[in-house]
Amino acid sequence: MSLEKPIGPEAILEKKKKYIMPCLAHFYKEPKQFVKGEMQYLFDSTGKKYLDCFAGVSVINCGHCNPEINAKVVQQVQSLQHVCNTYLTENFVNLAEKLAEVTPGDLQKTFFCSTGTEANEGAMLLASIYTGKDEFIALRNGLHGRTKLTMSVTGIQMWRTDPHPCGGIHFAPNAYCYRCPLGKKYPECDLACANALEDIIKTSTSGQPAALIAEPIQGNAGIITPPKGYFKRVKEILEKYNALLIIDEVQTGFGRTGKMFAIENFDVVPDIMTMAKALGNGAPISAFTASAKIADTYTKPGASTLGGNPVSSMAGLGVLQYIQEHNLRENALARGQQLYDGLVDLQKKYPIIGDIRGIGLMRGAEFVHPDKSPAAEELDKVLEEMKNRGFIIGKNGVGRNVMAFQPPLVITEEDINNVLNTLDDVMGEVL
Ligand SMILES: Cc1ncc(COP(=O)(O)O)c(C=O)c1O
């Protein structure tokens, strides 16, 4: 691409229609061509500036084209790009050592790959190797990837494209308190959704599942945030049946919730943790990490050509250093609270906002009609106009009716005030 002469959105849409498989949808009625990123800001082909409140789905935690991280990556690109990880290079072992430091509990040994899907597929393989079992439990409305197995443990109809998903997979109710799948209310429910896991193990499995896979906060499902205590109860039940807990931190990891990993908000140490997206801040890298006891059972040959590539691993090292040196976790908490408070004020004015949830800078506002049915079209109108006014905000939710804020963690107080004020104007005008 010529940076001076971008081809523009119409030409991209034409080529996309002709040369890209139609499963890949695009967002917005009038999409823009993005040509440049600078920390929390994006620029389109006309030079218009946007505040990015979605970070490419929780990827750009350290900001677009972060100069400190990119300086390291560029230096690496210019010295050694790739030899395959069956030869010795040093970045991937240094990154694995750092991950052992920043992941909770006894998580210690890592396998590197390139996408979140691959990390989850690998984590489930490791769970099967360690336990000698092959049944899995997943949460309704979870999303874990696009391969046969990861799609089969995905609990959102829209992303279950495979007409013949794998067998041996069972779904437990998710902790969606705003629309409790069991029709109960927290805290009187005594975590009935977590307790249901035991019934599912007893009645729907052989009684010996390998593992449960879950996102600590379900991103694609609409920032579904379980109550405190949920994962502790889940872990207790799994331990009773010698089943592992695989926590998918692909969307939630690397400072977004004010902790390095979202599961730390629930005081639980998973048996296997998967990560991707923000680990590379735009570089393709993913990983799964386990305790030595579990990891050391993975002894048959396993390698990913690009996994632990010197360039991607250097990006990962840069990301961890940047998060720590620039206090991104603290900023995620402070700005996340500011955003939450502002959304609560907007909710008082606009009852179409039915629920606000999340932790830190992973926040969702669910748009509903007075009868609580999803107000997806109204949300689309708001998001389109926010884009026209220079704000990129995400959308997720099973009903595609959740406004999703997952911005770069470098976002400022002024940025949050700007997005809230503009949201107030736009909602007043378009709804
Ligand atoms: C929670 C979660 N897990 C896994 C994936 C799959 O990751 P990837 O698209 O990198 O394969 C995603 C993608 O959005 C995700 O949000």
What is the domain tally? 2
The biggest sheet amounts to: 7 strands, mixed
- Bound small molecules, which ones? pyridoxal-5'-phosphate
CATH superfamily grouping of the largest domain: Type I PLP-dependent aspartate aminotransferase-like (Major domain)
The first-to-last residue Cα distance is: 39 Å
Shape: globular
Task: Write a concise keyword list for the protein shown above.
7-stranded mixed sheet, single chain, binds pyridoxal-5'-phosphate, 4-stranded mixed sheet, 16% strand, 15 strands, Aspartate Aminotransferase, domain 2, 431 residues, alpha/beta, 37% helix, Aspartate Aminotransferase, domain 1, 2 domains
Explain what this protein looks like in three dimensions.
The protein has 431 residues and is α/β, with parallel strands linked by helices. It is 37% helix and 16% strand. It has 13 helices and 15 strands. The strands form three sheets. It has a seven-stranded mixed β-sheet with strand order 4-10-9-8-7-5-6, with helices on both faces. Strands 1-2-3-13 form a four-stranded mixed β-sheet. A hairpin with a 2-residue loop joins β11 and β12. α3 (67-79) runs antiparallel to α10, α7 runs parallel beside α8 and α12 (376-388) packs across α13 (413-430). The mean pLDDT is 97. Bound molecules: pyridoxal-5'-phosphate. Residues 57, 115-117, 120, 143-145, 215, 219-220, 248, 250-251, 276 line the site of pyridoxal-5'-phosphate.
List strands and helices in order, with pairings.
Layout: H1 9-19, E1 34-38, E2 41-44, E3 49-52, H2 55-58, H3 67-79, H4 91-102, E4 107-113, H5 116-131, E5 136-139, H6 148-152, E6 169-172, H7 192-204, E7 211-214, H8 230-240, E8 244-248, E9 272-275, E10 286-291, H9 292-295, H10 310-325, H11 328-349, E11 353-359, E12 362-367, H12 376-388, E13 391-392, E14 394-396, E15 402-405, H13 413-430
Helix pairs in contact: 3-10, 4-10, 7-8, 11-13, 12-13
